[in-house]
Specification:
The chain is about 25% helix and about 30% strand. By secondary structure, it is α/β, with parallel strands linked by helices. Strands 3, 4, 5, 6, 7, 8, 9, 10, 11 and 12 form a ten-stranded mixed sheet that branches. Strands 1-2 form a two-stranded antiparallel sheet.
């Protein structure tokens, strides 16, 4: 069976963007879109660094929602990196895709935005699932935070992460260990009555303090009824929060 037979082509933003991804294994979800929107806030990015990019959905979404001048993309899985190249080329994004582990990747900035949708489970944190998706779900967070710290060189540079809300303190503790300070934070809830499932965090090099906790993002107002922000995101409109 050919590699193309093992993939699907899926639409984003009412068909404005297409994504080729594995039929089995890890497939993107809405977290990647929330991350792109949160990181850029509707403002064009001159040079984006995407750490652990998968098939490139965060970069694709960032480019569609706000514009990306050029992108540097890191992905260790050979198939995912190959599909990432195809997806970014089809979207006409000026991008360099490095097939490398984030912990050992070399990249050249400066970058004004760094984005990362890292694995959500630390090694040994849970019983490994017998699934092709497991390598993308389980892995150490520290290399991603360390790589972001290396890439944050300019005074206006920012790094944005999406991570499970239950593990927020792990992310903040690692960030502090690499001299990174949280400046914006937003919790994402499936429903208003449920605990946050993920959190969006913006980090930078700065003096401690000045953290802005944005209003909670509620995805659904009822069963099958998306909230206003999810509806806008699905249609390809950036939130443009200041």
């Amino acid at each position: 069976m050919s590699r193309d037979a093992d993939t699907t082509t899926d639409a984003l933003f009412d068909g404005a963007v297409t994504v080729v991804q594995p039929r089995g294994g890890y497939r993107f979800n809405v977290d990647a879109l929330w991350l792109a929107d949160f990181a850029l806030q509707g403002r064009r990015c001159r040079h984006l660094l995407d750490l652990g990019a998968g098939v490139g959905v965060v970069t694709l979404a960032a480019h569609h929602l706000a514009g990306v001048g050029r992108a540097t993309v890191i992905e260790r899985d050979p198939l995912m990196a190959e599909l990432c190249v195809r997806n970014l080329k089809r979207a006409r994004i000026d991008a360099r895709v490095h097939e490398a582990d984030v912990a050992r990747a070399r990249f050249e900035g400066p970058f004004d935005r760094i984005v990362s949708n890292p694995p959500f489970f630390e090694p040994g944190e849970r019983r490994p699932a017998k699934s092709e998706r497991e390598p993308a779900r389980a892995g150490a967070l520290e290399p991603f935070v360390r790589a972001a710290a290396r890439a944050l060189t300019g005074p206006r540079a920012r790094a944005a992460f999406v991570y499970p809300a239950r593990s927020l303190m792990r992310l903040l503790s690692l960030a502090e260990g690499h001299a990174l300070v949280p400046k914006r934070l937003r919790f994402v809830h499936a429903f208003a009555s449920e605990p946050a499932r993920v959190v969006l965090v913006e980090l930078c090099r700065a003096k401690p303090g000045g953290l802005v906790v944005e209003p909670p993002l509620v995805e659904w107002v009822g069963r099958g009824r998306p909230g206003a922000e999810l509806s806008a995101l699905r249609a390809g409109r950036a939130s443009g929060r200041s």
